Amino acid sequence: MKIINLAKINLISILFLMPAYSYAQTQLSIGQLLTKKEHAQLKSSKIKLNQEIYDIIPSNIPDQIYLINDQGAVGIGETVVIITEVSQNKFKTQASHILSLSDSIEYYDHMKIVHIKFKNFSQTLNAYNQLLKIFPEDNVSIPIQFSQPKLR
């Protein structure tokens, strides 16, 4: 399978080219562990994100996408980019062009964290790739949730 460089291709074009399987729309859930056979049946595109490679499948949840790791665990990627080890001033100086793309930005200067929310996953991936060119890869991430919180 070919790994897609998202700096060159946006997510919308990937999703239009990728077959939308009803299995993915109705059967996948956060935290689910797919067998190798089930994983192989999902003919998806692959992306490199947060230093790992994931299969991407459209989600029926707005502003989210299914991400399946190489062990077959199903997670959800949200429309958020988090940057660590950066102050508000440094972010505004080095990445001010991201401000216009974002839906909202929260600065946690005491922890040196910037939390950026976008309207859709395509914008999120675009900003993620731009931010990787500015800040170290270890400091830029898109959160992926592999389990649902449960009340005890």
How would you characterize the overall build of this protein?
- Residues 1-24 form the signal peptide.
- Keywords: Signal.
- By secondary structure, this protein is an alpha+beta fold.
- The protein has 2 domains: 3-76, no CATH class; 80-145, Alpha-Beta Plaits, CATH 3.30.70.330.
- It is 29% helix and 27% strand.
- The protein is built from 6 helices and 10 strands; from the N terminus they run E-H-H-H-E-E-E-E-E-H-H-E-E-H-E-E.
- The protein has a 6-stranded mixed beta sheet, with no helix packed on it.
- Strand 7 and strand 8 form a beta hairpin.
- The model is unreliable at 1-26 (pLDDT under 50).
Short synopsis of the structure:
With 152 residues, the protein is α+β, with helices and mostly antiparallel strands.
Widest β-sheet, arrangement of strands: 1-2-3-4-5-10
Q: What's the pLDDT, averaged over the residues?
A: 82
| Cα end-to-end separation | 41 Å
Radius of gyration: 16 Å
**Envelope shape:** elongated
Binned strand content? 25-35%
Uncertain runs with pLDDT below 50, 5 residues or more? Answer: 1-26
| Backbone structural class | alpha+beta
- Fraction in helix: 25-40%
User: Care to count the β-strands?
Assistant: 10
Q: What composes the largest sheet?
A: 6 strands, mixed
- Estimate nothing, just give the exact number of structural domains: 2
Number of helices: 6
Signal peptide: 1-24
Keywords: Signal
